[in-house]
């Protein structure tokens, strides 16, 4: 797989997490309390500007799903290894409302996530 290119979103921002499978994997399924190993790219919904990418660091990341923002916890569960999924995450399921202390507070975020292992 290679680093995905995320097109700048159009239309209104969603009120809830929007999950879109780009490629459905055929491996093991991500569980709510499990570990995941992923490659991902994140962009800002409004600007289309990339703010983070494991691809640019040259290696995937591995972590317990329960330690992630709510939108990832909701959006990765049920995904299968080998899959690629896009998540559009409103602020409430990301880093909270504007002024919340995180640089991405108040922003709707778009991620494309490749699930490599569980």
TrEMBL record:
InterPro entries: PPIase_dom_sf, PPIase_FKBP_dom. Keywords: Isomerase, Rotamase. GO terms for molecular function: peptidyl-prolyl cis-trans isomerase activity. It comes from the Bacteria. It is an enzyme of class 5 (isomerase). Gene3D superfamilies: 3.10.50.40. Its EC number is 5.2.1.8. Residues 33-118 form the PPIase FKBP-type domain. PROSITE patterns: FKBP_PPIASE. It catalyses: [protein]-peptidylproline (omega=180) = [protein]-peptidylproline (omega=0). Belongs to the FKBP-type PPIase family. This is Peptidyl-prolyl cis-trans isomerase. It comes from Corynebacterium matruchotii ATCC 14266. The lineage of its organism: Bacteria, Bacillati, Actinomycetota, Actinomycetes, Mycobacteriales.
């Amino acid at each position: 797989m290679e680093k995905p290119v995320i097109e700048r979103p159009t239309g209104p921002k969603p009120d809830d997490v929007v999950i879109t499978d780009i490629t459905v994997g055929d491996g093991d399924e991500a569980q709510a309390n499990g570990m995941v190993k992923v490659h991902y790219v994140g962009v800002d919904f409004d600007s289309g500007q990339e703010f983070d990418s494991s691809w640019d660091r040259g290696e995937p990341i591995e972590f317990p799903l329960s330690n992630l923002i709510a939108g990832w916890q909701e959006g990765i569960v049920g995904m299968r290894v080998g899959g690629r999924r896009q998540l559009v995450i409103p602020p409430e399921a990301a880093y909270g409302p504007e002024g919340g202390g995180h640089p991405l507070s108040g922003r709707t975020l778009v991620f494309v996530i490749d699930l490599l292992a569980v």
